[in-house]
Design brief:
Layout lengths: L3 E9 L5 E10 L1 E2 L4 E2 L2 H11 L11 H14 L10 H30 L2 H31 L5 H30 L6 H27 L5 H27 L6 H36 L4
Antiparallel strand pairs: 1-2, 3-4
Length: about 290
């Protein structure tokens, strides 16, 4: 956020339903030098234009502008980012996208836990923003490559690849939320206990893999692989429980058979989120250590 400003838009219909989400990023470029301008320069220019009479104390507009920049930087404490201009811009976008996907997964699973259809619909709406974020990263990478002709093109493309991986995780969050909308049965308590563990594990896997990519902490792969093993164990247990319940149930009711089908999709969604986290880790190792996948 040191190098760009953002503007978010939402459009609602007459019923108050969210129809469109839009986000724009504004990047100031010095066309003569071909370099990105630090937002701090903009703050100073604005302050210089202000009437000096309003710049009297700590509550002045000038100080508020500078404080605003500090708050933006502090908001990124979950991850550390490099000092390279291009990396700061794209990493910041990926950090925000990762946070959004964490929230999307949380909202989707909360809808399942509470069997709340309205929450499930809101969780699905979050996927619009996830898809929009992918496009922002893609276009921003293209901008950086065009500005910096000496950038490594293959490495620049990896940013977009990570964004698409996060978008895929968002899609699987949708599978989880759709369970509440598509089905009329609440999940059995024994199966739900395993799903809670899978949820916590996948949240940890996303965080580890993104930390490895953003901060270059590729040594976290061992921890990630342990979590992958545990999620496969949980998946097997859940599938066995569901299979047993299927054997004990009558399939005269179409709704009951659909329940098992959708429940399998929820279990599979968690497993796939774990797999995608592994893919992000592999990308991080290639990016930071130049070790091909």
């Amino acid at each position: 956020k040191k190098y760009y400003a953002s503007r978010d838009f939402k459009m609602y219909n007459s019923k108050g339903e969210l129809c469109v989400i839009g986000t724009s990023k504004w990047l100031l470029v010095n066309t003569e030098k071909g370099s990105i301008v630090n937002n701090e320069c903009i703050y100073y220019r604005i302050a210089e234009k202000l009437d000096k009479s309003v710049i009297l104390d700590n509550h002045s507009i000038y100080n508020k502008l500078l404080k605003y920049r500090e708050l933006l930087v502090e908001s990124l404490v979950d991850y550390s980012i490099s000092n390279t201009t291009g990396n700061v811009l794209i990493n910041d976008m990926l950090i925000n996208m990762a946070k959004h996907v964490h929230s999307q997964l949380e909202a989707s699973f909360e809808a399942v836990l509470e069997y709340d259809e309205e929450k499930a619909k809101k969780a699905l709406e979050m996927d619009y923003a996830t898809n929009n974020m992918v496009e922002k990263v893609r276009t921003s990478v293209e901008t950086i490559v065009n500005i910096d002709k000496h950038s490594e093109f293959s490495k620049s493309l990896i940013y977009t690849e990570v964004a698409y991986d996060l978008e895929r995780i968002g899609d699987y969050c949708g599978h989880i939320a759709k369970f509440v909308i598509n089905d009329v049965y609440e999940i059995d308590k024994i199966v739900l206990k395993n799903l809670k563990k899978m949820y916590k594990t996948t949240q940890s896997m996303i965080r580890l893999s993104m930390t490895a990519f953003i901060e270059g902490k590729t040594e976290l792969k061992d921890d990630l692989m342990e979590l992958e093993e545990s999620i496969h164990i949980l998946q097997a247990k859940s599938i066995n429980l569901i299979a047993t319940q299927m054997a004990e149930s009558s399939f005269d009711e179409k709704e009951r058979s659909n329940y098992f089908m959708y429940l399998f999709r929820v279990v599979k969604a968690f497993e796939r989120i774990g797999d995608i986290s592994i893919e992000i880790m592999d990308v991080a190792i290639e990016f930071h250590e130049n070790i091909p996948r």
